[in-house]
């Protein structure tokens, strides 16, 4: 019998764009044998669907309706939208920038809230995003706020895009990232902020393995307190 969602453990990993949240969340989940939630993918999928359907991106209710109708699936590395793998498409900067803008819409955030919470199933969940610890899973026993210097984040994103075959300009990425950080921190609905009980991890000078170890060590400490 599956556990009630309220007692299924959750580790939330929040932080700014390109701080490595997704990679760290997946590695931590692999180590623990848990499920993952890439909440940013849901906002990117909404943004992509808005673009594809020609919906007015300034119409908050119309954007929320797109989110409610999303036919989404996650299968390993694949991100499916209406049966099509769009994992590469949703990583384009134009989609990311639109996702950052529409993520400020209260109707959209409400539309996606229960969909995100439904990912909380046994044996556990590692959820990454910007408001996982503050809004979506406020009762999570471990909340991590993952940060990194904006220059380091821009360099990581530039490398990541080039490895996937996209053209990328470091200067442009740095400007976009600073603007996105500003929007995320100052939006009225669920701004990017560390939960009051979050543990901050700075990955600027850490490898992926070192960052994963820090999170797993924090989880071990949290388990001792339960």
From TrEMBL:
<dbReference type="InterPro" id="IPR027417">
    <property type="entry name" value="P-loop_NTPase"/>
</dbReference>
<dbReference type="GO" id="GO:0036431">
    <property type="term" value="F:dCMP kinase activity"/>
</dbReference>
<keyword id="KW-0547">Nucleotide-binding</keyword>
<dbReference type="GO" id="GO:0005524">
    <property type="term" value="F:ATP binding"/>
</dbReference>
<dbReference type="Pfam" id="PF02224">
    <property type="entry name" value="Cytidylate_kin"/>
</dbReference>
<comment type="similarity">
    <text>Belongs to the cytidylate kinase family. Type 1 subfamily.</text>
</comment>
<keyword id="KW-0067">ATP-binding</keyword>
<protein>
    <recommendedName>
        <fullName>Cytidylate kinase</fullName>
        <ecNumber>2.7.4.25</ecNumber>
    </recommendedName>
</protein>
<keyword id="KW-0808">Transferase</keyword>
<feature type="binding site">
    <location>
        <begin position="15"/>
        <end position="23"/>
    </location>
    <ligand>
        <name>ATP</name>
    </ligand>
</feature>
<dbReference type="GO" id="GO:0005737">
    <property type="term" value="C:cytoplasm"/>
</dbReference>
<keyword id="KW-0963">Cytoplasm</keyword>
<dbReference type="InterPro" id="IPR011994">
    <property type="entry name" value="Cytidylate_kinase_dom"/>
</dbReference>
<keyword id="KW-0418">Kinase</keyword>
<dbReference type="GO" id="GO:0006220">
    <property type="term" value="P:pyrimidine nucleotide metabolic process"/>
</dbReference>
<dbReference type="InterPro" id="IPR003136">
    <property type="entry name" value="Cytidylate_kin"/>
</dbReference>
<feature type="domain" description="Cytidylate kinase">
    <location>
        <begin position="11"/>
        <end position="218"/>
    </location>
</feature>
């Amino acid at each position: 019998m599956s556990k009630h969602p309220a007692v299924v453990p959750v580790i939330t990993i929040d932080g700014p764009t390109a701080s490595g949240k997704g990679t760290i969340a997946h590695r931590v989940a692999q180590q623990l044998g848990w499920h993952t939630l890439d909440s940013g993918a849901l906002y990117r999928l909404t943004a992509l669907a808005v673009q594809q359907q020609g919906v007015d991106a300034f119409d908050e209710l119309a954007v929320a309706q797109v989110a409610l109708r999303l036919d989404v699936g996650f299968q390993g590395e694949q991100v499916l939208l209406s049966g099509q793998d769009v994992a590469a498409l949703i990583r384009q900067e134009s989609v990311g920038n639109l996702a950052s803008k529409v993520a400020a819409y209260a109707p959209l955030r409400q539309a996606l809230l229960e969909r995100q919470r439904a990912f909380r199933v046994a044996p556990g969940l590692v959820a990454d995003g910007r408001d996982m610890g503050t809004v979506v899973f406020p009762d999570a026993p471990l909340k991590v706020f993952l940060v990194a210097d904006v220059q380091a984040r821009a360099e990581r994103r530039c490398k990541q895009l080039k490895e996937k075959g996209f053209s990328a300009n470091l200067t442009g990425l740095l400007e976009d990232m600073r603007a996105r950080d500003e929007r995320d921190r100052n939006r009225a609905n669920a701004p990017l902020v560390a939960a009051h009980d979050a543990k901050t991890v700075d990955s600027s000078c850490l490898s992926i393995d070192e960052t994963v170890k820090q999170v797993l060590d924090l989880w071990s400490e949290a388990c001792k307190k339960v």
